[in-house]
Design brief:
The protein is α/β, with parallel strands linked by helices and about 525 residues long. It has two domains: about 5-320, HUPs (Rossmann fold, 3-Layer(aba) Sandwich), CATH 3.40.50.620; about 345-505, Orthogonal Bundle (Isoleucyl-tRNA Synthetase, Domain 1), CATH 1.10.730.10. Helices cover about 50% and strands about 15% of the residues. It is built from 18 helices and 18 strands. The chain has a six-stranded parallel beta sheet, sandwiched between helices. It has a four-stranded antiparallel beta sheet with strand order 5-4-6-8. The protein has a three-stranded antiparallel beta sheet with strand order 9-11-10. The longest helix is centred in the last third of the chain and has 31 residues, at about 345-375.
Length: about 525
Amino acid sequence: MATPHTYITTTIPYVNARPHLGFALELVQADVLARHHRRRGERVRLQTGTDDNSLKNVLAAEAAGVEVSTFVDDNAAAFVALAGPLSLSVDDVIRTSRDPRHRTGVERFWRACAASGDLYRRHYEGLYCVGCEQFYSPAELRDGRCLEHGTVPQQVSEENWFFRLSRYADRLHHLIATGELRIEPAERRNEVLAFIAGGLEDFSISRSAARAHGWGIPVPDDPSQVIYVWWDALGNYLTALGYGTASQDHQRWWTGAQRRVHLLGKGVLRFHAVYWPAMLLSAGQPLPTDILVHGYLTADGRKISKSSGVTVDPVALAEQYGTDAVRWWLLREVPRVGDADFTLDRLVHRANDELANGLGNLVNRVITMIHRYRNGQVPTGTQQAHGSNELEEAIRQAPGLIDASLTAFDFRRATTAVWNIVDAANRHINFVRPWELAKAERAGDEDASGQLDAVLATLLRTCQQAADHLEPFLPDAASRIAHQCTPHTGQLPNPSPTFHRLTAPTSDTPAGPEQ
């Protein structure tokens, strides 16, 4: 049987400012899924990139007094560099203004839709939000303002190219309602179905070159127009695979892949679940199999975004508090449905409570006891440790719980499987009290000696299992724990802290880990 291929993508962010924690959430979620599918024996491609061809980028560069290409290159580099601080296993990054694959593929895609009779040119007047890079009807605004950005859209009147979205309403509704195109969570699927049921209108897919300030990809055979940034950007999922070139990646990862998985935030759901599938149908391409939608991160109740200026720097967070703490907060605090409010206190509390006091303390106690009672040598006990049923059950259930939870796009529940093992192991230590078994062993109790071997062997195996199941979520921590739990020249390494306790910043205390 051929090895399954899974293609996992993130959205590609505008580079009108430096990256924030909201996009880090999507990157970490995608990375967890990629690592999980690799562990299942699948071939995986984790794809991300940057959306360079936006009018937002042009206006931000002009406001900064910097040449557009220089401004875009600088900010794009900051997004690409997130792989290190967040411990991401990204396979490829595409930049829409620089990568030679992209323009070639976008032009081929445009021509494919034109050949289907789905592109036409007409005059249009409408309200355009630069922040969303989208036209809105008056009914979609609140008090004349964009719901997403709170700004008054511009009145635009020009001749553009349009895509016949209305032609695909029935097919899209059927594909989504039957689950052939799977959207999770169900609340988001229902939102898309309601939008389609309300009627789909053809949408503009080009802008005048003058309004685009000459930035972007020219419309094939019509240099007076620039391809609409969303048409351009959505195409990256194909162009990154060499669509339009001689590369075999398009067949391997798109037409021939078992799963094509898009991760995205709820604010761009319409583009990915309605516009993009219709465009693919027009071009004769397979659709994504899964669209997985996360909510927003907020800070003090306000959405974290580049446009609003409400931002949290994920690189600075990782430098001050560690990659593990940042990833763990994103995976443990953000619900499957709904938004999550970020504070440093919450990040520190979650890391200290579950990583330092829970998992880190467990590993340290187990390694310390094996050194103290068995000179660092791994016990070879064959007995069943008394009272270990709950612990064994938590270990037994973990793989299935993690797999089912990640299939349902529920990272909280998936990480709970690891926490259940840690929690059960710490309770097991308090129940069996190995120090009392060691005391009885010194008094000559052979049964106690056998039981101590069994307990220590069970606990070490538990730490090894916890590290194994932790790997998709916290790869760095999993590696450190696995190292501590693996004998070297016959002995386990000396115990050392797996996690440092963190302190939240105050007016008098700098942020950072306690040493």
